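A protein record in our archive is deliberately plain, so that people and models can read it alike. The tokens are whole numbers drawn from a learned vocabulary of local backbone shapes. For reference, a complete record is included directly beneath this paragraph.
>
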Amino acid sequence: MTAAVMIALLAAIQQQPSAAQKPLSGQPCSGRELVGTWQLIEAQGQPFKSDGQTAYKHVTPTHFIVLNVDSTGLAAYAHGGPYTVSPGTYIESIRQGVGPTFAALRGLKGEFQCRTEGDRWHIVGKVAGAAGGGDLDETWRRVTEDKQ
């Protein structure tokens, strides 16, 4: 994601009501069901569209990485690190990455309400210390062989 797109996204976030107060449907996350590859399909309650870019979140049993790629598959930026899950709460620590978005997020921690429903993963919460307040409301769809 370019710096301009990130700034626009953060500006949109500031104009939305606090995401932390929105009730979530589905089952509280417990951990294992998050392992896999996810594609961002909704941000701040709107379908995610960013000039042909796609955001993926890859989750292992201990770490995550968010990778944004352009329409040609070229990585635009990445950030990741360890995460923890307790029933209904997902906390990620941003420790590794590349690009201007990582530079803005390095060392920060996100704490989210976390629910899954079918092939959807919904997180709502805040990245403490992020520009624009850091409120996030994201829905990710599990990537399978037939859905990319």
About this structure: Helices lie at 3-15, 100-105. Residues 113 and 134 are 14 Å apart (CA to CA). The longest strand covers residues 75-86.
